[in-house]
Design brief:
Elements (H helix, E strand, L loop, with lengths): L17 H8 L8 E5 L6 H14 L3 E5 L3 H15 L4 E4 L7 H6 L2 E4 L1 H8 L6 H5 L1 E7 L7 H17 L4 E6 L6 H7 L1 E5 L7 E8 L2 H17 L4 E4 L3 H13 L4 E4 L5 H12 L5 E4 L13 E4 L3 E3 L5 E3 L2 H8 L11 E8 L3 H4 L17 H13 L6 H9 L2 H4 L6 H10 L3 E4 L2 E4 L1 H8 L4 H10 L7 H9 L12 H11 L10 H8 L6 H17 L2 H7 L5 H21 L7 H5 L6 H14 L3 H4 L9 H9 L5 H5 L14 H17 L9 H23 L1
Parallel strand pairs: 1-6, 1-7, 2-4, 2-5, 3-4, 5-6, 8-15, 9-11, 9-12, 10-11, 12-15
Antiparallel strand pairs: 13-14, 16-17
Helix pairs in contact: 5-7, 7-14, 20-23, 20-25, 21-23, 21-32, 23-24, 25-27
Length: 700
């Protein structure tokens, strides 16, 4: 059953919800100042944002709306393109690119924190448009404390205010807590409302064992469905959403599941089916805690704990729980909503009256020196600051400074100079080739240093280069590992050359990832290598028992970006002489260039040589492979007539391709790699040791 919006359909104040009326009466539209609004989910926050945006657009000025996830930006873009006109609204996120001219042409830009921050890294490109900007609306502004995303959001706000001091900022959230520091930093008026269009009833179901927990949850859902109540269930993991969903299906309850491992089309299908009442129950991870508007009569929080990264579990953050609970109650259909927590008997006290307890204060993510280092780097690279005094003023304007959380800045700058990320010349800071590359590829400074260090290793084979990118701080996602996946990885390692895997000590010494990530690094590198061999995502996922091909696709995209950065880094740093001048085999840059093609297109080393032939596109290379022509050398030996089935290629072009291939084949480097039995046995043994160590740590 579709929900009805809580937005009033007319301009009559009698249609307003109490929170909306309170805020409008306080001068929200006319004051021209910044505002910080804390309002429960379903109380009309988005409608207020829309009114503020409309007010600005009517004046011929421009606005930006920032949402934390793509699902929300795309939803709002669709709504506002209809409301304000498609030509007046643009969307900028990882799925939608806009050049500077396209951004300047729109009145309203809908974007994510990361995409907005990317525009501001080179402000000169967008300066005229930014000066016409009147309003910045930030949805879920409480996420300003959320690691890299929060640091980039804070940086974007600060940079926009420097470029446009008269900019009005509206931050909205349902889970703020102590607002004083954020309100002061924004210079904003603050309003907190507690009225919900649909009030919530909170309750708990207690259990002792996992079996009892599932039994009680199933009985609860059966009762809810019998009352014609749609039920949204939040679980801690993808596997659990599917397992519980299957159990409910077995009881005859129409159920779907929703998590990040599903393809976008599958997630959209589940959202639509639930929104329009085709299924009564949707099991989900936190993918639905915010973003797409999917209210339900009942919200069941199946798991109140989350993995803590150390092989153990901890209670979920209260903010996350409140976000989930906010989905309960459909405005226009339900008089009340119900939030139910499944709680272990030992934790009843912890969760008692949790919805009435105070939220922990929000702290700036820039308290982390690594996150502050990136902000300093982008500020210098974007010419927001040049001198030490300018940098100090810039940092004093951060929320971290407001809260007294700035790390030791002189020590941080000293470390950045020592690592070659910045240079100080005649009292002015400048970036280096290394840091310019880090900014351009959105690399954490620690990733740039990681790459720079490992490129000094004299001999890196293709698999070693995969390990280099998979072990860097910026690689995501690392694929989860189970016993059967270790076995398949052993098969992969039994036929490839690698320097790093000769022992566990060697691997740890060179790669230096967190201990709990080491096994995942090796397995993910194996998955990427197998992808280059078979060239099919579904087949690769099946071979490695990877439950979700979508994760593999994300890993491939991450590897492409990082390999491109690693390849360019080879041109800006000095490589070891033996790496550059080896007369036999290939150099590290040449191997990287080939590996980038392999990972991008799913080609093995020989197949990737087809892309070295002038005129051969990736699509044509795949056609040639299907015709049995698997290398530039083989293409050069082919009769042009045998290429008659090559689509879109005429007789003259076929002859040229064969002629070019003959020339290229003579110049191709030798990609054969020494793969001795001893080498492979060492690699397999190292992998087994990592698996045993991971199991031992988990059992502890």
């Amino acid at each position: 059953m579709p929900h009805r919006s809580s937005q009033p359909e007319t301009n009559d104040n009698s249609d307003l919800l109490p929170g909306q009326k309170l805020i409008l009466d306080a001068g929200f539209m006319e004051s021209g100042q910044s505002w910080l609004l804390e309002m429960p989910t379903g109380s009309g926050k988005t409608w207020l944002s829309e009114q503020a945006i409309n007010h600005v657009l009517q004046q011929g000025r421009k606005a930006i709306y920032v949402a934390p996830i793509k699902a929300l930006t795309q939803n709002q873009y669709t709504d506002w393109a209809y409301r304000f006109g498609a030509d007046n609204v643009g969307i900028l996120d990882s799925d939608h690119e806009l050049n500077a001219a396209a951004i300047a042409a729109v009145q309203l830009l809908v974007t994510t924190p990361e995409s907005l921050e990317s525009c501001l890294r080179q402000p000169q490109t967008h300066l005229m448009w930014l000066r016409q900007l009147s309003l910045l609306v930030i949805d879920e502004i409480d996420l300003i404390n959320d690691g890299w995303r929060g640091a980039r959001l804070e940086g974007a706000i600060l940079q926009l205010q420097l470029l446009n001091p008269l900019l009005r900022v509206i931050g909205i959230t349902a889970t703020l807590g102590d607002e004083r520091a954020l309100r002061t930093w924004l210079g904003a008026a603050f309003v907190r409302t507690t009225h919900r269009a649909v009030p919530l009833d909170w309750q708990q179901i207690h259990f002792w064992t996992a079996a009892e927990k599932q039994l009680r949850a199933v009985q609860y859902v059966l009762n809810a469905v019998q009352r014609q109540h749609q039920c949204l269930i939040f679980c801690q993991s993808r596997q659990r959403t599917e397992l519980l969903g299957q159990v409910l299906l077995g009881k005859g309850i129409p159920t779907l599941w929703h998590h990040a491992g599903l393809a976008p089309a599958e997630r959209t299908e589940a959202e639509n089916a639930f929104q329009f009442g085709k299924v009564q129950v949707l099991c989900a991870t936190t993918t639905l805690a915010m973003g797409v508007n999917l209210p339900a009569r009942e919200v069941l929080i199946y798991d109140t704990q989350r993995p803590n990264g150390n092989g153990d579990f901890a209670p979920m953050p209260k903010r996350e729980l409140i976000q989930m609970a906010g989905r309960a109650g459909r405005p226009g259909f339900d008089e009340r909503g119900t939030v139910t927590l499944l709680v272990h008997e030992k934790e009843v006290g912890h969760w008692r009256d949790v919805h009435q307890s105070l939220l922990l204060p929000i702290h700036s993510a820039l308290a982390d020196p690594a996150l502050l280092t990136e902000r300093v780097l982008t500020a210098i690279n974007g010419q927001y600051v040049r001198t030490s005094a300018q940098l100090q003023r810039f940092l004093n304007c951060t929320l971290a400074a407001q809260q007294g959380l700035l790390p030791n800045v002189p020590e941080l700058l000293k470390d950045m100079q020592t690592s070659g990320m910045i240079a100080a010349v005649e009292g002015k800071f400048t970036t280096t080739s290394l840091s310019d590359l880090a900014v351009r590829y959105y690399l954490q400074p620690s990733t740039a240093s990681h790459f720079q260090r490992l490129l000094q290793v004299e001999e890196l084979w293709l698999f070693d280069l995969l390990l280099v990118v998979c072990s860097c701080p910026d690689f995501a996602p690392l694929l989860p590992v189970r016993q059967e996946q270790v076995s398949q990885s052993e098969v992969c390692l039994a036929s490839i050359a690698t320097v790093f895997l000769q022992s566990q000590e060697t691997l740890e010494e060179y790669l230096r990832p967190p201990q709990e990530a080491l096994l995942k690094v090796v397995y993910t590198a194996c998955a990427l290598y197998i992808w280059t061999v078979c060239g099919d995502v579904e087949e690769t996922a099946s071979t490695l028992y990877c439950a979700y091909p979508q994760d593999l696709l994300k890993a491939i995209a991450s590897a492409q970006r990082l390999l491109a950065a690693l390849l360019e880094l080879c041109t800006v740093i000095e490589l070891p002489t033996t790496t550059v001048d080896r007369t036999e085999g290939t150099t590290t840059p040449i191997r990287l260039e080939a590996l980038l093609k392999m990972v991008t297109h799913g080609f093995n080393p020989e197949e990737a040589t087809l892309l070295s032939v002038p005129g051969v596109t990736p699509a044509q290379a795949k056609q040639l492979i299907r015709l049995g022509i698997r290398s530039a050398k083989q293409l050069g030996q082919t009769d042009p007539q045998a290429l008659v089935h090559l689509q879109g290629v005429g007789a003259k072009t076929r002859t040229k391709l064969v002629r070019y291939a003959r020339v290229v084949a003579k110049q191709l480097p030798n990609f054969s790699e020494p793969c001795s039995v001893d080498n492979c046995q060492h690699s397999v043994r190292t992998l087994r040791q990592l698996w045993i160590k991971a199991q031992t740590n988990w059992n502890r």
